[in-house]
């Protein structure tokens, strides 16, 4: 078995290979003068694990080329961050169901697929081969547990993320809650934990994705005003669009961390072992 990756998921692929105790396959990536992608694999094995997040179109094209280059092998595809997964509804006539389009394109030439904390597991039904989602709640919980936290409160930014926050909190037996938004007036919205108080506590907001960080910035400001001792944030996918990282720190957030499903300077925990466990569990 050989693990290969696009150039956008190299570090995670190395972590997966290490956890699987199998070699990494080298791939050379270049472009043609017109901008088209080219790649060449150094070797191919009977069983291949192909790792590639899809944060943008270049990553998608590289992943499609890599799958094609592995033609003839038994291919397991790992899509740590599945871009377009939030575009899973047709709001207006004439729109694509983008999540379905991406899932269908990535189903060709592979036997099974693994994603990591996909935004909505319903998206997995669009793949044409068996697809499984892996959760990093344990990894986030263990990371947080390795740091001193005073009377910690693990918060989900909304009701929908409450179960994920509960799993993170469960790793260390911490309390958990979710934020509730109340509209005070036309312009004013208040956010506070639904059941518990943030006062004098180290609060960690956990979510699957930090994209623009808009919700998180508003929540952090309000939690600090409610007397939280500190506010930090931990997510799986650090998209960090539109300068989100700096904007969040500027609100007074103590730390913003993510996994290596998208390789960032603030990637503090790896999805490698959880992915390897998922793959081995399906053998
Ligand atoms: C939404 O349902 C997701 O779980 C995230 O909360 C959302 O994508 C974050 O977006 P942003 O960082 O732009 O507020």
Q: Describe the main β-sheet briefly.
A: 7 strands, mixed
Mean pLDDT: 96
**What string, H for helix and E for strand, traces the elements in order?**
EHEEEHEHEEHEHEEEHEHEEH
Number of discrete domains: 2
Terminus-to-terminus distance = 13 Å
* CATH fold-level assignment of the largest domain: Rossmann fold
Structural class: alpha/beta
Unreliably modeled segments: none
Outline the structure in words:
By secondary structure, the protein is an alpha/beta fold. The chain has two domains: 2-135 and 270-282, Rossmann fold (3-Layer(aba) Sandwich); 137-260, Rossmann fold. Helix content is 29%, strand content 27%. β12, α7 and β13 (256-259) form a beta-alpha-beta unit. α1 (10-20) packs across α8 and α4 (137-145) packs across α5 (162-172). The protein is globular and about 60 Å long. It starts with a strand and ends with a helix. The structure holds ribose-5-phosphate. Ribose-5-phosphate is lined by residues 157, 160-161, 207-216.
Structural descriptors:
283 residues; alpha/beta; Rossmann fold; seven-stranded mixed β-sheet; five-stranded parallel β-sheet; 8 helices; 14 strands; binds ribose-5-phosphate
Describe this structure in a few short sentences.
The chain is of the alpha/beta class and 283 residues long.
Task: Describe the secondary structure blueprint for this structure.
Blueprint: E1 2-5, H1 10-20, E2 27-31, E3 37-41, E4 47-51, H2 57-69, E5 74-79, H3 98-105, E6 112-116, E7 131-134, H4 137-145, E8 153-156, H5 162-172, E9 175-183, E10 189-193, E11 202-210, H6 214-225, E12 230-238, H7 244-250, E13 256-259, E14 267-269, H8 272-281
Parallel strand pairs: 1-4, 4-5, 5-6, 6-7, 8-9, 8-11, 11-12, 12-13, 13-14
Antiparallel strand pairs: 2-3, 9-10
Helix pairs in contact: 1-8, 4-5
């Amino acid at each position: 078995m050989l693990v290969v990756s696009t150039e956008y998921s190299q570090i995670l692929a190395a972590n997966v290979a290490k956890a699987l105790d199998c070699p990494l396959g080298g791939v050379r990536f270049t472009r043609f003068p017109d901008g088209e992608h080219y790649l060449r694999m150094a070797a191919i094995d009977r069983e291949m694990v192909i790792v590639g997040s899809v944060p943008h179109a270049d990553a998608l094209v590289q992943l499609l080329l890599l799958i094609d280059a592995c033609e003839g092998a038994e291919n397991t595809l790992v899509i740590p961050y599945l871009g377009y997964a939030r575009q899973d509804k047709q709001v207006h006539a004439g729109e694509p169901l983008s999540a379905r389009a991406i899932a269908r394109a990535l189903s060709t030439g592979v036997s099974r697929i693994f994603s990591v904390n996909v935004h909505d597991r319903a998206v997995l039904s669009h793949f044409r081969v068996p697809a499984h989602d892996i959760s990093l709640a344990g990894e986030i919980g263990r990371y947080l547990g390795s740091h001193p936290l005073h009377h910690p409160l693990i918060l989900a930014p909304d009701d929908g993320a409450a179960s994920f926050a509960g799993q993170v909190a469960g790793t260390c037996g911490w309390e958990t809650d979710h934020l509730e938004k109340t509209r005070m007036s036309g312009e004013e919205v208040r956010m506070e934990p639904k059941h518990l108080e943030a006062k004098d506590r180290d609060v960690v907001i956990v979510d699957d994705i930090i994209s623009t960080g808009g919700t998180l910035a508003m929540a952090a400001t309000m939690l600090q005003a409610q007397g939280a001792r500190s506010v930090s944030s931990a997510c799986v996918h650090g998209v960090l669009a539109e300068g989100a990282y700096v904007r969040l720190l500027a609100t007074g957030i103590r730390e913003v961390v993510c996994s290596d499903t998208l390789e960032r300077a603030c990637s503090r925990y790896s999805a490698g072992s959880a992915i390897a466990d998922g793959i081995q569990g399906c053998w």
